[in-house]
Amino acid sequence: MYMYDDFDAAFVRGRVAEFRDQVARRLDGTLSEAEFLPIRLKNGLYLQLHAYMLRIAVPYGTLDSRKMRQLAYIADRWDKGYGHFTTRTNIQFNWPKLKDVPDILDALADVDMHAIQTSGNCIRNVTADHFAGAAADEIEDPRPTAELLRQWSTDHPEFAWLGRKFKIAVIASEHDRAVLKSHDIGVRIVRGVADEPGYEIFVGGGLGRTPMVAKQIRSFLPKAHLLPYLESILQVYNLQGRRDNKYKARIKILVHETGIDRFRELVETRFQEKLPQFNGVNQKILRRIEGSFVPPAFEAAQPMPPVLGAGLQSWIDTNVAAHRLDHYGIVTVSLKGIGETPGDASSDQMRLLADLAEEYAHDELRVSHEQNIVLPHVPRRHLPAIYDRLKAAGLATANIGLISDIIACPGMDYCALATARSIPVAQQIAERFHELGLEHEIGPMKIKISGCINACGHHHVGHIGILGLDRAGVENYQITLGGDGTETTVIGERAGPGFSYDEIVPAIERIVSAYLDVRTDPEETFIECFRRVGMTPFKEALYPPEEARSNAA
Amino acid sequence: MTTIVTGNGISGDDWADRDVFAFDCFWNGQELPEEPLAVAFPNDREAADLVPWLDRIGLIVVDFPAFSDGRGFSVARRLRELGYRGRLRASGPLVSDQLRAALKVGFDEVAVAPSVAARQPASHWKVGAQESYQDRIAV
Lengths: 553, 139
Ligand code: SF4
Hints:
The complex is a heterodimer of chains A (553) and B (139). Chain A is an alpha+beta fold.
């Protein structure tokens, strides 16, 4: 795992001091509120419905026990004893006081963490595959590239005042676990014809009001060319992206309006000019970074204790994924306890996760974009012990990838932009299907819920997407079906008119029973079934003709 | 009077008595006086269009219509990439916290808007000793 060197440490401390000074200048009036706003956003500080919210960067989702314990400490000392893990693999605290924020940032710097560029119109925290370093199908660990990009994008003088936010993700396998194509730039590590290392680059993805799937701009970019190429994309975007309308300011709109071929020409021309300016020092830095992501000292295979108990077996089947070593597993700890707020963890739970990582799992933790916590390197022989301790802390929910493993944005419960509640909808769906005992019967299913058009809950790429809107002061939930956030990214299709808050859970139930009716056999997942039969049976279930409705009533 | 900030502190505008030409003057065939010339550069124009005149120009003033409109940072970087070596000035309601970035992308100075100068004394306009990641890696 990457450890700060003197430069990183001094940089982060310098930024804390600078922010302390900025807060003071806001309080004495030399910085206006309008001027302070983007400055605080670039330091992760939002003003929400009820209070400030501090969003802390978890670069490429990677944590260790020391960092996780510090997050627990911050939750207890300055917040209400819990934190919320987000779809950008960050963590948010919902109740800090402005005057405490510089102290919180100092506490983060103590463990090599920060809140820089987790918000604002700049290059945001870089994300990566949450199974990085553990998945069997990866070409190499994507995190060194992500760390290089973190360093390059931090306080970049040219790109700190973009037209809109800018998100970059890095993966290194065919299978996409990081929703790569919903990012402004997606970087996929590949090998060239002669097996030389390089990147495939995608540009112009994004969800929000106008969802777009990122397009390939380069099929192969030699490794050493990454920074000049990204600078070229960013420069074209910064100069030519629209600034007249907030909703048209993302690079996806520029790429769409310019056309990918013309956009590629602009970037390639710029790239040829820029390439000579880069002398290769960044590749030396990259190699140094790579040196800090060496795999842990894996133990030799040892016998697995017998699995006693259906609870443990079901949890292993559902929450433990294959590791690149057979006698290891990748454990996903569900933060989607039935009836809980998706992504929330209490300080006690954070400390337990830190303990488990330290005692059993080579001291590594990950935050997934699906708002769960991953222990990437777990010897299988420890699974029973880990399960028991998770269970005692209410963290052993066996629902990864199932209908109750819902992504939900904070919505009306916290977010100032929300048009509807999303957390309670997620809770009710989870409770309902749990009650029916149908979760495992239904199988793989991704429900994603956003509380407004900004789509932080990724609803466009949910197998079932739910978007909460406001229709004349009443919450109204629109359903999309067939979305997919993997390597075969598809934006979901709208099913029809929306449903009220009271109707939305029954509507989801009707979709699910239609699926159970029309699937060929239990092996056919919901998304496969949808692709085969299309929208019609689901539409009929959602909007039965009058007659059928009165008969049912 | 306009306040000019550089990496070394604050001064008045030593170009105040001379003309600053609109960008279009270079294109509409207008008779231009002795060099060095100064040009006002709107942030939505193409920097490469100025290339034929770059060695006659002594000052380019890049307009920042709002402090949050960061196109000017890329305009400056472009002008330097195209080989402009003369003075480069950022002009608009920039705040002191942006001085560091302005100098990094190639500006020599910032012309501070009177509205901002009234609130932000000279002591606020400092670059600080902090090294940047770009100095370290982005070459
Ligand atoms: S989708 Fe809307 S309501 Fe949900 S967190 Fe984002 S901005 Fe807030």
